[in-house]
Amino acid sequence: MSTAPVGISAWGVAVPRRRLDNGVLARAWGRPPSPGVRAVPGPDEDSLTLGVEAALGALDRWEAASGTASSGRAAVGAVLLATTTPSLAEGSLAGLLAEVCRLPETVRTVDLGHSGRGGLTALALAADLAPSVGPVLVVAADTRRAAPGSDLEPLVGAGAAACVVESGDGVGWALVRRAGRASPLAPSWRLAGEKHAQWADLRFGRTVLYGEAVDAVLGVLLEGVDGERLAGIALQAPDPGSGVRALARAGLDPRRHYRDHVSPKTGDTGCAHPLLMAAAAAERLETGALLAVLAAADGVEAVLLECRRPTPAGAARALARSLPLESVVRALDLAGEVAGRPADPLGFRSEVLDWRERGPTWRLVGTRCAACDATFALAPRACQRCGGATDDRPLARAGTVFSWTREHYVPTPEPPGGMVVVDLDGGGRLTVPLADPEGEPEVGDRVELVLRRLHEIAGRPGYAWKARPASAGGEGGSADAR
Predict the structure, then answer these.
(1) Residues of the domain holding 312
(2) Is-above-0.70 flag for pTM?
(3) What is the pLDDT of residues 128-161, one digit of tens each?
(4) Where are the alpha helices (DSSP H) in 67-182?
(5) Are 279 and 313 in contact (CB under 8 A)?
(6) SS3 178
(7) Is the pLDDT assigned to residue 342 strictly greater than 60?
(8) How many domains does the structure of the chain reveal?
(9) Which residues pair with 365 in a beta bridge?
């Protein structure tokens, strides 16, 4: 058995840009104000699209750090995707994510669900798998929703986190200890077929179902740990006060150790939340630091990580990007809570069509001419310039706007829809819908491609790439973001 350290080599995060201030919620429902904002997914965002964005970020950073360009992902041995809000109740989202990320067909895929501890459970399983199967991609994503006007509504949000777990001396964060505790009861749950999470009695949930379990696991996880090296604790909590009290009961200084740079900007993102908190904390800590990460749901899952090499995650940038929502009605409409959304006009799709189009539709693969090196976003059998033979070529996920227009013909949840012609970095021109509009784009603007939900036909979601304004500093904005 390998004695090399096992841990995290790269992180990736994704958070919806739309945010609703809890003060707006309080005024709408006549409730006492609470601090913070919630991340609100758009009608074309779900757990898969957020998970893909986080996964691609982690893979890009991993390949850049290892110097393997886009060939490193061929070594990925397994994908573990955790979510409690899947777009499919039956069918592997991990398999679809692996396809979009251009991972090898031999990769093992595992879907984890039902538990808010799923993200950290996936991390622990990946640490067991990595020495034997090679690098493992761990992804956790959730789009949590609560009933409008409920006490839980200001507390939940949406987001995703991903990490590459492998064995070797080059890991950025070594996993040095684990602890856990199972429970048949949970402070929150959601019935099958329902879209809104529910909470148990708040006092009982916070003090017994949450507090006692966290106290027990935290004691085991930190037993014998040098307090000077413990730089932070990323502790998922039903509210900030519960997390502060848990650390105080453990004899820790919450002002020094409590690392939550996420909750006030997103709300609780379910099984993604502990990994999101860890990613945000990790990019602020230095070599030698210890970081404890705890997920609390139906029991507690916990890991202790040691920083071997500072590892940027892009969390601060992702959390800073924001499109404030000024209306609760608008937020409810984006969540599909308001009647009157137009029916999907695209009435046909099939598994045969999905299979045939999976190159440009999912994997974002075009063609390159072997003779003149021209690159095409679609897949002509012969070069459109010189007539030479073509072969497959991965396309960049970033480019510049060549042209754009407003689409008034096809109904959309956010009319009118926008269509953008993008000149991709490295070659190829692609026409795609516009996502996350921040006003009208201009010719020459930088955009990045993100996978989004396109339609739902016969009870099955369909996905496609869309273009959104590029981030400042450009995650996904460089020519090597393939």
Answers:
(1) 6-334
(2) yes
(3) 999 999 999 999 999 999 999 888 889 899 999 9
(4) 93-100, 118-133
(5) yes
(6) strand
(7) no
(8) 2
(9) 394
